[in-house]
Amino acid sequence: MIDKHQIASDFRDLQDRICLAIEQADGKAKFQEDIWQRPGGGGGHTRILQEGKVIEKGGVNFSAVDGAMPPILQQKMNTQAKDFFASGVSIVMHPQNPHVPIIHMNIRYFEMSDGTYWFGGGIDLTPHYIVAAQAAFFHQALKDVCDAHHPDYYPSYKKWADDYFYIPHREETRGVGGIFFDRLSEGNGKSKEQCFDFVKSVGEAFAPIYTALMAQNKSKKVTEAEKNWQLLRRGRYVEFNLVYDQGTKFGLETAGRIESILMSLPKYASWQYDIKAEEGSAEAYTLAHLKKGLDWLG
Amino acid sequence: MIDKHQIASDFRDLQDRICLAIEQADGKAKFQEDIWQRPGGGGGHTRILQEGKVIEKGGVNFSAVDGAMPPILQQKMNTQAKDFFASGVSIVMHPQNPHVPIIHMNIRYFEMSDGTYWFGGGIDLTPHYIVAAQAAFFHQALKDVCDAHHPDYYPSYKKWADDYFYIPHREETRGVGGIFFDRLSEGNGKSKEQCFDFVKSVGEAFAPIYTALMAQNKSKKVTEAEKNWQLLRRGRYVEFNLVYDQGTKFGLETAGRIESILMSLPKYASWQYDIKAEEGSAEAYTLAHLKKGLDWLG
Questions:
Q1: What's the mean pLDDT when you consider all of chain B?
Q2: Is residue B252, in this structure, part of any structural domain at all?
Q3: Does the pLDDT of residue B254 top 80, yes or no?
Q4: I want to staple A190 with a disulfide (CB 3.0 to 4.6 A). Which of A150, A194, B96, B104 is the partner?
Q5: What is the CATH number of the domain that holds B123?
């Protein structure tokens, strides 16, 4: 029977493997690690990579925290449970080359002293320039992972990602979506072990998917206009993370370790007034495909 | 007796005078104007200045909107009033040179069909590098404006600004504060006209204060390290505006004109992991003075 220690331990191992794979694919940068402790219990390993050859700024964070349920959490979750345990791995990568997409991955486990628990997670891709074939490759890889566990997972978690990674005030999705799920626990013919197996396979999928996208795009030529467009798209990423991302909001409200939470923000971003994409341009193509409900595998 | 038309008209005139003063002080850039209409009633004049000699990006917005109270507004304000009118001038200036501070000014008027109304506003200064003498000059100018109208205004509105322009997750004020007030209406021996006179004098104070700070700092030499520090401080400005600023949040929630609302964001900003200021440096001095309750005139 898996327990929280096993889950946290597997998450830590995953963090190691992902960091190695990213360092190898980058060819230059090394992660710097900060080990931190949470005053209320537990802690984490924040690993940040800056100024790599392929990755300009990225983070692969592991944490496993426990202790008394903060009142704000009891209220939000409508529970009297006294203690909690939470562990997860969180990744965001901001590449140098605008033709390499931004990526995010998170898997997490949460349990309370009243015995309730659940898993959550997701992967989503934010290309500065959308390329249909690459979006299809990405979604096919996620569908393969999902289908190996349950036929409902891909369609429902793909829709969940479309709805979650959305910027209402821009009427844009953050990127080409991916999968997102939360409150996954035993039921529907699945045991806790099987849920965890699925979550781990989402985590394992990250490195092969992203290193392939890095290799495919890292050497593409870049114009000044494309670099500028990348800065503007990163501005949207900042808007999503600071205004809508539930994990970020929760971290800010509960006074989490701020430098670990905001590692998701890019090194450089830009806002320029009322930018329009030229008709027929790659930028216009991208904007036209920042929509919910697109079937990249169709 | 002043009415909403008079107030909006005076606000528009103020916008014109401020834009002229900024253009003159900049010496190069011209504001571009977008006139927009709000589907539900009213509209605005957004004026944006980009790539000036002194100002990298800035906006001076005027709007006067009216119509049916949006349900979310009725709920927030706990009212049954059917219609509203709102007018204001909003300014943010992001300078090129890190020794010129960022500044924000807003004055506004709101009324509802049940006869309630109020004024609000504020000015606050966000130096990338705090200079005590300039913070004192700024606060003295605001105190002079306040004291001409009521002896309580400066101390209470200064405190209000300290509390409002605060970034809890960084445990930093946005800058050296200024004044902030809301829900100002007749009472305490003041008529509506006298309240409006005060609000106008806040608006009139903006241009002389900021053009003086521009002139004083625009030609200072700048190192690469100082430019980088400016980008990091702008990152904090983005965090405040997207996470905490009530006006921005309200605009995003009510689907206001997004390009006008987010004109407050800088052209370029940066986030770098776990930056520390060197002991005894100008950066460390600045961080040590991003605190509530400092008496710059003491």
A1: 96
A2: yes
A3: no
A4: A194
A5: 3.40.1500.10
Question: pLDDT tens-digit profile of A69-107?
Answer: 988 888 888 899 999 999 999 999 999 999 999 999 999
Question: Which residues of B belong to the active site?
Answer: 104
Cα-based distances in Å from B282 to A3, A247, B99? 50, 34, 11
Domain extent for A41: 4-288
Query: What is the domain count for chain B?
Result: 1
- Is B273 a domain residue? yes
Is residue A265 a part of any domain in this protein?
yes
| Cβ within 8 Å, pair A273-B168 | no
> Looking at CA atoms only, how far is residue B18 from chain A in angstroms?
20
Q: What stretches of A22-101 adopt beta strand conformation (E)? A: 32-37, 42-50, 55-68, 83-95
Task: Check CB contact under 8 Å for B252 and A170.
Answer: no
Q: What is the ipTM of this complex?
A: 0.94
Mean pLDDT of A150-173: 97
B295, part of any domain: no
**pTM confidence score:** 0.96
* A75 touches A42 (CB < 8 A): no
Instruction: Evaluate whether A27 touches A51 at the Cβ level (below 8 Å).
Output: no
- How do residues A218-251 score in pLDDT, each as one tens digit? 999 999 999 999 999 999 999 999 999 999 988 8
Tell me the pLDDT tens digit for each residue of B34-49. Answer: 999 998 899 999 999 9
| Residue B191, C-beta contacts closer than 8 angstroms, at least 6 positions apart | none
The C-alpha atoms of residue B54 and residue B97 are separated, in whole angstroms, by: 7
Reference A161, options A149, A143, A151, A173; nearest CA is A173
Q: What does the alpha-carbon distance between residue A106 and residue A89 come to, in Å, rounded to a whole number?
A: 6
Residue in A closest to B272 by C-alpha? A267
Q: What is the DSSP letter of A278?
A: P
Beta-carbon separation of A262 and B255 below 8 A? no
Reduced to 3 states (helix: H, G, I; strand: E, B; else coil), residue A119 is strand
User: pLDDT tens for residues A35-65?
Assistant: 999 988 999 999 999 999 999 999 999 999 9
DSSP string covering B80-131: ---EEEEEEEEEEEEESSTTSPEEEEEEEEEEETTS-EEEEEEEEEE-SS--
Query: Can you tell me whether residue B63 is helix, strand or coil?
Result: strand
